[in-house]
Amino acid sequence: xxxxxxxxxxxxxxxxxxxxxxxxxxxxxxATLLAGGRYVIENIPNIxxxxxxxxxxxxLGASVRMLDRSTVQIDxxxxxxxxxxxxxxxxxxxxxxxxxxxxxxxxxASVSMPGGCDLGARPIDQHIKGLEALGAEISIDHGVVNAGxxxxxxxxxxxxxxxxxxxxxxxxxxxxxxxxxxLENVAKEPHVVDLANFLNSMGADIRGAGTDVIKIHGxxxxxxxxxxxxxxxxxxxxYMIAAAATCGDVTIRNVxxxxxxxxxxxxxxxxxxxxEYDDAVHVTRTGPVNKINVKTLPHPGFPTDMQPxxxxxxxxxxxxxxxxxxxxxxxxxxxxxxxxMGANIQVDGxxxxxxxxxxxxxxxxxxxxxxxGAALLIAALVAEGxxxxxxxxxxERGYEDICGKMRLxxxxxxxxxxxxxxxxxxx
Length: 427
Ligand code: EPZ
Description:
Layout lengths: L1 E7 L4 E5 L4 H10 L6 E5 L5 H13 L2 E6 L2 E5 L7 E2 L1 H4 L7 H10 L1 E5 L12 H9 L3 E5 L2 E5 L7 E3 L5 H11 L5 E5 L5 H12 L3 E3 L5 E5 L8 E3 L4 H13 L3 E5 L7 H9 L3 E4 L3 E5 L4 E2 L3 E2 L11 H8 L2 E2 L1 E5 L10 H6 L3 E5 L2 E5 L8 E3 L3 H13 L2 E6 L2 H6 L3 H7 L3 E6 L1 H8 L1
Bound molecules: ligand EPZ.
Ligand EPZ binds next to α1, α5, α6 and α12.
């Protein structure tokens, strides 16, 4: 087992460059199945969810070649399969995007039920409702979602709730459907817009991405393309909060400041100073952390994927802050770990009452999911002494080289293989 060992108590200082967006990459990679041909995708983050997506593409028959560290060439001409195995699908949530993409290409798909972070119930009823409205027949047998259709036909779909995944899956399935598809009450996240831009660069006709209504005129033919993925809003936000929490002075480069607006506003209210440039933000904090209330909401609201990191900052506030999780049923599982580090937080359902404390204390902790891991890492950077974070594979699903990037900012962090695991390997 691998873990991070962090000696905290030092302000982060310097520059960090943000990688491509995980949640855009995991949608764009399956989209390369929609039309055969050779694609070049730039600004691909080097993270485990991307590796798994590329493995799925290979398993389906695509040829995949890294041209450099962040550029991948995919040739999807010879796709010979429409089945995504349990072994790969279970390793990440976004594997269900292969359903929409394979349906769009072949009119059939079988994808094992997806895995991903345990954040409470993660139903896929809205994906199924939408795909059925386009004419697909869906069945779930032995943990595999099977979808088939001779001709997908455009439809008017009103989602019961805002879902990033259902919006993306329906865009993938509808681009080649016959006629007009109207998706209402859709997600407006930057990665939804990035996927629409990617599909349009393949010849699709998608309008309205980034608003509540997306209109898709189906086209018969799409073609391969070259594309550069947007920077990762959540990775950027994580470094912004890490800078503020450690009283640091950090310039975060390769970002789209507009995508960070909800995070920037909350950080300023909490006492940080944030300066925006064309493609960078600069974050410092010299005064106390102010108590603030935060509620997570679909974009452009405060992102749920920044909730754990923001809670860590608020453990250092003067007074009591209220953090309300508006998307997931169970996204406070990390709180017990944070309390081991001296935080004072009471959770009641989807509300956390965060009583500010003088200091956090180093402790051994366990990452319960991806963003929980990022939050604990920030807490460990703040706490005097040496903390250890276990189950870091969660973090490595979504943050490119977080150890290296943090070290460049002056953090004392190293990744070690635990002795008992070496023993287990030896046995
Ligand atoms: C995406 O998950 C992200 N993952 C998540 O990021 C993020 O937390 C989430 O959107 C919300 O922003 C990817 O993009 C790969 P949803 P997704 O469908 O698509 C309910 C991270 O840390 N719902 O928008 O799975 C659902 O239960 C990850 O990077 C239904 O009821 O989320 C939830 O309450 C974690 N029926 C809400 O909608 C459905 O069919 C939002 O889920 C689908 C969803």
